[in-house]
Every structure is written in C-alpha cells, then in structure tokens.
C-alpha cells in the first residue's frame, strides 16, 4: 500500500479562467487528480470518493457542502482520531477551500483542520499499548503526517485571521492557537 503524499499538491494550478471581471483566477482544486486516491485509504476503505466530496465542498449548494463535509470528517478525522492515510493527502485541499470566499462552510473546514492539528489520540494509545507501533499500517505515522500537513500551510492563517466573516475569523484564531502549542 502506498503512503499518502504530504506535500501540497494543490499549489500547482492546471488552468486559469477569466471571470466576467477580467481578472485571472485559479481553478479550485485543480490538483485533485494528482493524488492517487484509489491507492490510499480512508475509514471506508479506498479514498477514491474524497475528490467528489471536496468538489462538493467547493460548490455553491450549502446543504450539499455541509453533508459532504460531515462525510469527509468521518472518513479522515473521526472522534478526534486521524483515520487512515488519506487525511494528510486531504489537508492541502482543505486549506485551499478554507481560503475561497465562495465556499459556504469555510469555518467548519477550518474547525476540521484544527481537529486534525490537535489529533494525538493514536500517540496516546501507543504510549499505553506500544504494540500499535508494530502494525504494518502505523496510525501514529498517519497522525503525525496529517498534523505536519496542517502546519505546512499555516502561512494562510494571516489572511484568514483578517476575514470580515466573524465565524471564519474565530475558527482561524482557534486553529492558530492550536498550531502555536
């Protein structure tokens, strides 16, 4: 089984579009197809559905976005546990979505990033039951990679803290506090 990449795949933009205002804007989630989702796992098995969920989050249907976020949460960070290796691969896309003003559930995405940044449950379990570390698929490694992926994009915090949307600014403040620890 391949390990999920933790680099930031969404920094590469495949295409630009010209909106009616004439300014070029990057296509959201353009790098989703650069991740081998079917070769990595989430809580359901194959992580192949994660791109669909992320694209739904980027859409303008608020109800569909909330449902997609809840499903994504159960697949990558459930009950405070980083679930499988897909979490680290998903994080750069969550950061990207959190910065897009048209995304309807930005504050909740930032809260999910905070949950991932705070996740240390597998490390706690391994401290009591070290045999966890002997498994071929080591959840402590997934947890650490996921936290590192959140920290790798913390440069976006400054812009998010300046948001006029109070809910986004509050969620970002909580994430910034978690990353400062």
Beta-strand content: 5-15%
Secondary-structure element series: EEEEHHEEHHHHHH
CA-CA gap between termini: 33 Å
**Proportion of residues in helical segments:** 40-55%
Query: What can be said about the biggest beta sheet?
Result: 2 strands, antiparallel
Categorize the overall geometry.
globular
Mean pLDDT: 81
Low-confidence stretches: 1-25
SS-based structural class? mainly alpha
Spatial strand sequence of the major β-sheet: 1-2
Over all CA atoms, what is the radius of gyration? 16 Å
Provide a count of the helices: 8
Count of DSSP strands: 6
Task: Explain how this protein is built.
This protein is mainly alpha-helical. It is built from eight helices and six strands. A hairpin with a 2-residue loop joins β5 (77-78) and β6 (81-82). The chain starts with 15 loop residues before the first strand and ends with a helix. The model is unreliable at 1-25 (pLDDT under 50).
Summarize the structure.
The chain is built from 8 helices and 6 strands, in the order E-E-E-E-H-H-E-E-H-H-H-H-H-H. It is mainly alpha-helical.
Feature tags:
181 residues, single chain, disordered N terminus, two-stranded antiparallel sheet, mainly alpha
Write the layout of secondary structure elements.
Elements: E1 16-17, E2 25-26, E3 41-42, E4 45-46, H1 50-58, H2 62-76, E5 77-78, E6 81-82, H3 86-98, H4 106-118, H5 121-128, H6 139-152, H7 157-161, H8 166-180
């Amino acid at each position: 089984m391949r390990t999920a990449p933790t680099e930031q795949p969404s920094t590469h933009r495949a295409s630009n579009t010209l909106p009616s205002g004439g300014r070029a804007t990057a296509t959201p989630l353009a790098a989703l197809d650069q991740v081998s989702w079917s070769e990595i796992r989430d809580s359901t098995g194959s992580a192949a559905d994660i791109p669909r969920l992320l694209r739904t989050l980027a859409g303008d249907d608020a109800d569909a976005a909330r449902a997609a976020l809840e499903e994504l949460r159960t697949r990558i960070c459930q009950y405070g546990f980083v679930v499988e290796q897909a979490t680290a691969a998903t994080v750069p896309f969550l950061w990207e979505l959190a910065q897009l003003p048209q995304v309807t559930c930005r504050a909740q995405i930032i809260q999910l990033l905070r949950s991932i940044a705070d996740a240390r449950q597998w490390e706690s379990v391994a401290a009591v039951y070290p045999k966890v570390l002997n498994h071929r698929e080591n959840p402590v490694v997934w947890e650490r990679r996921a936290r590192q992926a959140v920290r790798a994009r913390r440069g976006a915090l400054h812009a998010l803290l300046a948001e006029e949307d109070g809910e986004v600014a509050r969620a970002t403040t909580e994430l910034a506090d978690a990353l400062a620890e």
